[in-house]
Design a protein that fits this description.
By secondary structure, the chain is an alpha/beta fold. It has 2 domains: 3-106; 185-388, 3-Layer(aba) Sandwich (Rossmann fold). The chain is built from 15 helices and 13 strands. Strands 5, 6, 7, 8, 9, 10, 11, 12 and 13 form a 9-stranded mixed beta sheet that branches. Strands 2-3-1-4 form a 4-stranded antiparallel beta sheet. α1 (3-23) packs across α2 and α1 (3-23) crosses α3 (44-60). The chain is globular and about 75 Å long. The termini are far apart.
Length: 391
């Protein structure tokens, strides 16, 4: 592909991504994969260059742009070589008109920036929210040791305060490590430690998804005890059993829940869990480094629905925790409505419960929990709180 053809491909993909963000369609990575699946003529270098152009444009535009062309023009304004690709030749984009302007650069939609600032994010911390994320691994101690895995990977670095974590150079191929290690952001590993899960305990992962935190819990427990991994998404939950088998985990039971009626399927676990972990559905404002187009998907109405879902899940979890047990609330969000505020509301509605702020070696106190940010912790953004039921 010529440089103009690559620019045109990026525009076409950006058009799809903008439309999907507005209409709730597929994620950018999925759309990019589909696009090249039908364009076999594009070599690996072409795919890499086009992908980089697409993500440069997404990161550049805080507000959802009017079109893919407007998004790429925002990048071309600072890149003369890319600007020259708008030459109208062959399969390239039309020349840039005299008065044509690209989308306005920014960090996020204005309403979200206001909420982030109101939630205590300093102006100096905002740019890091859309930086590129590193590649982190969690070594599965049920089957391997961190030193053993690090020796197999050029450039691997240990991450302080996380004994099982390694940070790798971007693009490192880790496919051969299936079962021995899991790709998992250091922040995600850290907040899971807030559960303080121990061998022999009974633990519920209430929003398990594909099971990243479930497997981390199992390793903490030495695969001794019982973990109930739940979710309302059948497709995501079905990915957990084969992952658990590869990881040598034998203590996990999966259970599909009916949204809004979760307790109907959890009767035998009422008052019986040593710990319930809620990795709650959230705005994902802490994961923009990995999913920058998520800034264009969130709306005030969707945020309101997510906050309501989180409050509901906290109430469900409270029914499962045994007297003296703990509930861990996690969101990959930096908005107080989903973190600090949720904890305050929960404690107001559940007399006798108390907050026990985790000590993780990551994050800073925020409300009654901890907040991790990309700028301060070099992780995804998280809020985590540990709540204790009275005996």
């Amino acid at each position: 592909m010529t440089p103009p053809a690559r620019a045109q491909a990026a525009i076409e993909l950006l058009d799809q991504i903008v439309a999907a963000a507005e209409g709730g369609g597929a994620a950018a990575d999925t759309l990019i994969g589909r696009y090249f699946a039908t364009r076999r003529y594009a070599g690996s270098k072409d795919r890499r260059v086009v992908r980089e152009l697409v993500y440069r444009a997404i990161r550049r535009c805080g507000e959802r742009p009017a079109s893919g062309r407007a998004a790429l023009l925002a990048v071309a304004g600072d890149d003369a070589e890319l600007g020259a690709a708008f030459d109208g030749s062959g399969h390239g984009p039309a020349p840039i008109a005299a008065q044509e302007r690209g989308a306005e650069p920014g960090l996020a939609p204005a309403w979200l920036l206001d909420l982030l600032r109101a939630s205590g994010l300093g102006q100096d911390e905002l740019p890091a929210l859309v930086d590129r994320a590193p590649l982190d691994l969690r070594v599965n101690r049920l089957r391997a040791e961190p030193d053993e895995i690090a020796a197999q990977l050029a450039g691997a670095e240990a991450i302080a305060a996380l004994p099982d974590a390694l940070r790798l150079p971007a693009g490192t191929d880790v496919a051969a490590l299936a079962g021995l290690a899991e790709v998992q952001d250091a922040g995600s590993q850290a907040v899971t430690l807030a559960s303080v899960a121990q061998p022999g305990q009974h633990v519920v992962d209430l929003c398990a998804g594909g099971g990243g935190k479930t497997l981390a819990l199992a390793a903490m427990m030495g695969s001794q005890g019982a973990i109930l991994a739940c979710d309302t998404d059948r497709g995501r939950l079905q990915r957990l059993p084969p992952r658990a088998e590869r990881a040598g985990v034998t203590i996990v039971e999966t259970r599909l829940l009916n949204p809004g009626r979760e307790l109907e399927a959890l009767g035998e676990w009422r008052d019986g869990a040593d710990c319930v972990l809620i990795d709650a559905p959230c705005s994902g404002t802490g994961t923009w480094r990995r999913n920058p187009e998520a800034r264009w998907r969130l709306t005030p109405a969707r945020l309101e629905r997510l906050v309501a879902t989180q409050a509901h899940l906290l109430a469900v979890a409270a029914e499962l925790v045994r007297p003296g047990g703990t509930l861990v609330h996690v969101v990959c969000s930096l908005l107080d409505a989903e973190g600090r505020g949720q904890v305050q509301d929960f404690l107001s509605a559940h007399p006798g419960w108390t907050a026990d702020r985790p000590k993780l070696g990551f994050g800073r106190p925020h409300g009654l929990g901890l907040r991790l940010t990309p700028a301060y912790d070099r992780t995804d953004g998280f809020f985590v709180a540990r709540l204790k039921r009275p005996c």
